Amino acid sequence: MKIFRNLDEIKGIKNAVVTTGSFDGVHVGHKVIINRLRKLAKMSDGESVLITFHPHPRRVLYPDSEGKDLLLINSQREKIELLRKAGLDNLVIINFTKEFAQTTSMQFVKDILLDRIHAKKIIVGFNHFFGHNKEGNYNSLHDLAGTNGFEVEEIPEQDIQNETVSSTKIRKALLDGDIQRANAYLDHQYIMVGELTHGSEMCKKIGLPTMSIFIDEDIKLVPPEGVYAVSIIAKDFYFRGMLNIRNAKTIYQPHHPNTCIDLHLFDYNTNLIGNTTTVFFHKRIRDLANFNSMDDMKNQLTKDKAIIDDLIF
After folding, report:
1. With b meaning 16 or more CB within 10 Å and e meaning fewer, what string describes 143-164?
2. Cα separation, 76 vs 3, whole angstroms
3. Cα separations (Å) of 114 from 87, 88, 107, 154, 292?
4. Which of 207, 210, 221, 223 fits as disulfide partner to 262, beta carbons 3.0 to 4.6 Å?
């Protein structure tokens, strides 16, 4: 997948079939659009293109209201990884600013979709709006298509809303700790990507060494406190393990001294400190507990490990 972070860099996209949107979570509804995009690109001997925006428009336009406490299922690096796995050919990431927000739907179509990307076909969801004041939609694209040499297609509502999936429902499931429901909506495991750092000295003393995970995007949604069954990929190695989240805030603060995401891996025999890892969440095992002694903590964590080890994942 080619990634373009500057509109001036875009070149060489053949017979572009294009869609736009946030695609937070890259959930099953999003995959309907991506799969259609890929199919049409293949039929026209072309390439699929997704245009998305960073930061999220709500963070820029409404920083003191609905954008202030906005949580996203995926950080930007996670979304890139998921879109690559979905088979997308090209990703265009537009820097969203207040100035860019003034772009009219006509300007967006003419200056970006046609002049920069040379779109041959534009795909939109049933409720998709774009441009300043959300003035652009399928009907306005359809009006422009005939005289500007491109085709437009709208994905029907029933095709996108598989089990009425929405990013909002997925976020709620995650904040409730219902990982399995969130995974069903996503059609893949909820992931967390971050750097591995040195973990808890206390866990090391009881024979269950951990590593901490550092996330560098404060907009990333982190599930509630508790113990989770997880698997990871790092340095091309795959491991199963358990993850402990404690003192997590509603909005995760990477530099908050009391926030800790600790990972204990099973059958771990290599040094991963300093490496980037992808954590796949499978199930929430229990709430956090307070322990009277290190022996109590060791006994409980040993039980947690046995429970997780019996799970099939």
Report:
1. ebbeeeebbbbbbeeeebbeee
2. 12
3. 23, 19, 10, 18, 66
4. 210
| E-state strands within the chain | 2-4, 16-20, 47-54, 90-95, 119-124, 151-154, 190-198, 211-214, 226-234, 237-246, 260-265, 276-286
Residues in the chain: 313
Please report which helix (H) or strand (E) contains residue 216, including its range.
Answer: none
pLDDT tens-digit profile of 148-157? 999 999 987 6
How buried is 134 (Cβ within 10 angstroms: 0-12 exposed, 13-18 middle, 19+ buried)? exposed
Distance CA 297, CA 140 (A): 62
The residues spanned by each domain of the chain are 2-167, 189-310
Residues 6+ apart with CB under 8 A from 236: none
CATH of region 2-167: 3.40.50.620
pLDDT digits (tens, 9 = 90+) for 34-84: 999 999 999 999 999 999 999 999 999 998 888 888 899 999 999 999 999
The residues facing 243 across adjacent strands are: 228, 263
**pTM of the entire structure?**
0.88
How far the first Cα of the chain sits from its last, in Å, is: 28
Contact in structure between 128 and 138 (CB atoms under 8 Å)? yes
CATH class, 189-310 region = mainly beta
